[in-house]
Write a structure and sequence with these properties.
heterodimer, A: mainly beta, 4-stranded antiparallel sheet, 3 helices, 16 strands, 12% helix, globular, B: mainly beta, 5-stranded mixed sheet, 6 helices
């Protein structure tokens, strides 16, 4: 009987250990679509990267757009034209991010104008970044698995959403992120958040960045999270909705950030 | 056009009634047909006069009634897998005749049973209907040695698998929520265990099932694509017995027997998976982890007298999946109380009370918990009037009160306000009448009408949204007030024209209305799917289906062959706006898009029913498309349920009395899916860019399974058998999903990743009975 139990467990677990393979697949080319990746942060000028989509498996640098007229306006009436600095990057000089202000970004290209707005909220400050032995589903990996414990401040007078980015061992390109809705924060001055993922091992150096974001930015990032997480072939993927119109991809967000680094050293 | 049709139908019914009244000196033979050894009722037994001029079939309760002119007859009782029984009768008064049939299992070699009416498929009016007995299901190869009726029906033409391992299935291009699954008349809302790898139907407790994909009789309603009517066993009326099985994933045990011999019997059947116990034993899982399912079927039946019988049946099942204080669980509960009453030898009545509940919940430890579900309380009254040998009229009414619990999230932290989506209520009612009518020796018809009505009831509010999902108007309703009413006439008609002794042609038309919609963020069916009613914003789905079929038998009815073609137009099918959050969305109604769908196809089916080698070959060629404003720029696009080719080959060979070998091979076109046609960089990440809905295909799927069934040497009281199965014999790594992501080895570049679930999976199951 014992033998049966063990084979049962092994067969069950082997089968559920799904097998992943990188495969070749032919994808169609599409007409290049305009992509705006724009942000403004406290005490810094706005920045915009204006590019076009490329073939999915293409290796060339994406084409950029250098002929747009870009203007940023704040809710207190100041505005500034952003200058093209090359490679589709536009930046400002004078108008700097200020907490509590609303910003509107206008991109004019030929006859088209794309308009988006966003609000800059109070930066959080990370009070504590710690780790604990993993207790979630990741714990099947063995004892050498750790989850983070994060304590950060929250301005109760604002409806704050948060974006958490996790960078491991200074690896900037492949980071993971979590978008936290205001409903989960509640009316509290200190938020404790213990993410179940990612799971870290002993010796990992982890940097956590927490961005205060508005509702629109939260919605955009949670859609982004959904389509990049890889939900399987059965659901229908889509393009996250830009705040700059239906005929453009990307987003214009205002955000403020605090970060902290820890080495998992139990 | 439709209205005219209804009036025509209304006019026709009294006419047939008059015809029956004119007949003289006719008497009725009625009674029940049961299995000799266990006393279990047999469903679908053909009863006919030896000259084959008149015939009938037993209903779900084993009851039959046949009215014939005065005279001497030889009446044949015939059922596949059982020896024919011939009764000589001198008919001069109404007769009550209960009969019992003996299983012919041990005499498989004697194929020829002369009197057997083996051409039922030609004489039956129904098309798009398949009856499966558990004996047939039992011999097929299965995943992990778990017999599963939902897997078996996916091998039939017109019924396709949506996702490997999953239990959601699509019938003639319909979505998975368009299938009505009934267990002893109670609807089962989520028919899967272990995230969809196993169905909730314990094979030991199931007697058989009928699946209707077209020509759906008017007594069924509420779903747009199909009906899967599953009946539970009644329990052995003759002696107490136990049976069970030990498999790799779960074990089963069934106890049954008489409480009062030949009058009252019971059956209790339980099943539990033990992968978690095993994994804990082997140290793979921590002791705090949960990973199991169990279910319990129970039924009690009591024959009060020849005219009255009562059945009480219930199902309870649960899945638990969790680690420490984090977890998820889901389960169904159904209960049915039925009363059979014979008003006369010609009028059979069944009264049913139904309860069904489905719920699921998450426990997120210190954060809080979430739950959602649906509950039905229903009543049904059905009459069968065996008016004359040419006409059987069924009529009745039903009503179900649905309570929808869309979901709530309760936070442990009291400073955070809970998310609670208001529950919704609805009353679904219907009346129906249908006539199975032999118009001439060659032409028979089954026509009927179902009138269904759906009322969404308060407490609640009807909300008007603008295009940006913002509320612009709201009307509140008190408890029990009618918020929205929908009414649909659903005519059904089927004709059978017997071309000659070996072939027949059939034609049918169906209109079906569905008032409930499933909210899901996948097409394959998940425990977290939530149901919601039609509301002021969401219209009921209606489907018109036309089908045409040709049926022919070969070689003394050993082979059955059929071609059926169908065309279906679907109205108000649902989909979502891009990026819709389905779970816990208070304004979900404003995110639902409705549009049209169409499906058409041809189904080829060749079945060998008798002999040492049995099995079937089925091939479906079909096309299913949707057109919904707001999706794919309003253009027609391939439905996620579109499968161009779908082939199943099923064969079972009886090597000797004790050994049989069976196999099945399936092949189908990959699902229509949305893949990216470009990419862009945003915030340092490569993001896929999508331009066309369902513009790509998953790779084609194919797989071969084998099963060796070995009966033990039958001892007097104890018998046992072994099943050795191999799933996916040639280890085909079929794609479960294809994901697009940034390469982890070469940052900045992108790759496609195929996920495969099951390679070759051997399994072994031991079954016993005493």
């Amino acid at each position: 009987m014992k033998y049966l139990y063990i084979t049962s467990a092994i067969i069950f677990l082997i089968s559920f250990y799904a097998c992943e393979n990188v495969i070749d697949i032919d994808l169609n080319s599409s007409n290049p679509a305009l992509v705006a990746d724009a942000f403004i942060e406290p005490n810094k000028a706005a920045s915009l990267s204006l590019n076009y989509t490329a073939d999915y498996f293409g290796t060339d640098e994406p084409k950029y757009e250098g002929n747009a007229e870009v203007v940023i306006t704040s809710s207190n009436g100041n505005s500034e034209a952003l200058q093209h600095r090359g490679n589709g990057i536009y930046t400002g000089n004078l108008l700097k991010g200020q907490v509590g202000q609303n910003y509107e970004l206008s991109i004019k290209l030929g006859d088209e104008e794309y308009l988006g707005s966003t609000e800059l909220l109070t930066p959080t400050s990370i009070l504590e970044l710690d780790f604990v032995e993993a207790s979630g589903p990741g714990s099947t990996r063995g004892d050498d698995a750790y989850n983070l414990i994060i304590l950060f401040t929250n301005n109760v007078d604002e409806e704050n959403y948060y974006l958490l980015k996790y960078f491991m061992n200074d690896e900037i390109v492949e980071h993971q992120f979590t978008a936290l809705p205001a409903e989960f924060i509640g009316n509290t001055e200190v938020v404790q958040y213990d993410p179940l993922f990612p799971v870290y091992e002993k010796g990992d150096k982890v940097r956590v960045e927490i961005f205060s974001i508005d509702e629109g930015t939260y919605t955009y990032y949670s859609q982004l999270q959904e389509i990049t997480r890889g939900r399987g072939g059965s659901s229908t993927p889509y393009n996250p909705q830009s705040n700059m119109g239906n005929d453009i991809l990307g987003y214009f967000r205002a955000w403020s950030m605090d970060s902290k680094t820890i080495t998992i050293n139990p | 056009m439709q209205k005219k049709f209804i009036w025509l139908l209304m006019l026709l019914f009294p006419f047939f009634t008059l015809e029956s009244a004119q007949n003289q000196n006719k008497y009725t033979i009625s009674g029940r047909v049961s299995e000799a050894s266990s006393g279990e009722d047999l469903v679908g037994v053909t009863i006919y006069t030896k000259d084959q001029s008149n015939g009938t079939m037993t209903n779900t309760y084993g009851f039959y009634s046949i009215t014939l002119p005065e005279g001497d007859y030889e009446i044949v009782y015939s059922f596949i897998g059982y020896e024919n029984l011939i009764k000589s009768i001198s008919l001069h008064k109404n007769l009550s005749l209960d009969v019992a049939l003996n299983s012919s299992d041990t005499e498989l070699d004697e194929i020829v049973v002369n009197a057997e009416k083996k051409d039922k498929n030609l004489t039956s009016i129904n098309m798009g209907v398949e009856k499966l007995d558990m004996k047939e299901v039992g011999k097929l190869p299965v995943l992990f040695g778990e017999r599963d009726i939902l897997k078996t029906i996916q091998l039939l033409p017109g019924i396709s698998t949506v996702s490997e391992g999953g239990n959601g299935f699509s019938v003639r291009g319909g979505s998975i929520d368009q299938n009505l699954i009934l267990l002893d008349e109670a609807p089962v809302y989520s028919a899967s265990h272990l995230m969809g790898f196993f169905s909730v139907f314990n094979p030991d407790a199931i007697k058989g099932m009928t699946v209707y994909k077209g020509g759906i009789p008017a007594n069924y309603g509420g779903r747009a694509a199909s009906v899967l009517d599953i009946s539970m066993r009644d329990g052995n009326k003759k002696k107490v017995s136990a049976s069970g099985g030990i498999g790799l994933i779960s074990s089963r045990l069934t106890l049954e027997g008489p409480i009062i011999k030949d009058k009252m019997s019971f059956i209790v059947s339980g099943r539990r998976s033990y992968a978690d116990i095993a994994a804990k034993g082997a140290g793979i899982l921590t002791s705090e982890a949960d990973l199991y399912f169990y279910d319990l079927n129970a039924k009690l039946n009591y024959k009060i007298n020849d005219k009255n019988r009562i059945f009480l049946s219930g199902y309870f099942g649960q899945d638990d999946f969790g680690f420490d204080d984090l977890g998820m669980s889901w389960g169904n509960t159904t209960a049915t109380l039925r009363w059979n009453h014979l008003f006369s030898s010609k009028l059979f009545s069944n009264t049913t009370g139904i309860y069904s509940n489905y719920d699921y919940g998450f426990n997120l430890g210190e954060t809080g918990s979430m739950s959602s579900g649906i509950r039905d309380i229903g009543f049904k009254q059905d009459f069968s009037w065996y008016a004359n040998p040419k006409s059987t009229i069924k009529f009745g009414f039903d009503g179900t009160y649905h309570t929808f619990f869309p979901g709530e999230f309760l936070f442990s932290d009291n400073s955070i306000s809970d998310i609670q989506i208001d529950q919704k209520q609805a009353l679904e009612t219907a009346v129906y009448i249908t006539n199975q009518h032999k118009l001439s020796s060659k032409l028979s018809a089954d026509y009927g009408l179902r009138l269904s009505m759906f009322n969404q009831l308060g407490k609640g509010s009807n909300t008007v949204y603008d295009d940006d999902n913002i509320i612009i108007e709201q009307e509140n309703f008190g408890k029990g007030e009618i918020m929205q009413t929908y009414f649909e006439p659903e005519p059904r008609i089927a004709l059978n024209y017997r071309l000659n002794d070996l072939s027949s042609a059939k034609i049918s038309y169906n209109r079906m209305a569905q008032y409930m919609h499933m909210l899901s963020n996948s097409t394959s069916g998940q425990p977290t799917d939530t149901w919601m009613p039609s509301t002021s914003n969401i219209k009921p789905t209606t489907v018109n289906q036309y089908s045409l079929g040709y049926f022919r038998n070969f070689k003394d009815n050993q082979f059955e062959f059929s071609i059926e073609s169908y065309y279906k137009s679907m109205n108000d099918i649902t989909d979502y706006k891009d990026g819709t959050e389905v779970m816990l969305n208070e304004d979900i109604e404003s995110y639902i898009l409705q549009g049209m769908g169409r499906s058409y196809g041809a189904e080829f089916y060749l079945k060998k029913k008798y002999g040492k080698l049995t099995g079937w070959l089925s091939y479906t060629l079909s096309k299913t498309e949707n057109q919904i404003d707001g999706i794919n720029y309003g253009q027609w696009y391939d439905s996620p349920y579109d499968k161009t080719h779908d082939i199943s080959i099923v064969a079972s060979y009886q090597i000797s009395k004790r050994v049989s070998l069976s196999t099945n091979w399936v092949y189908y076109t990959g699902n229509a899916v949305t893949f990216p046609s470009g990419k862009y960089e945003f915030d340092g990440k490569q993001i896929p860019y999508y331009t066309e809905r369902n513009g790509y295909r998953m790779p084609d799927y194919h797989r071969l399974d084998l099963n060796l069934h070995l009966d033990g040497k039958g001892k007097k009281r104890f018998s046992s058998s072994w099943d050795f199965s191999i799933y996916n014999v040639y280890n085909q790594m079929n794609a479960y999903s294809i994901n697009f992501r940034e390469s982890s080895t070469e940052p900045g570049t992108t790759e496609a990743v195929k996920l495969s679930l099951f390679g070759i999976v051997p399994s072994i199951t031991w079954n016993f009975k005493f």
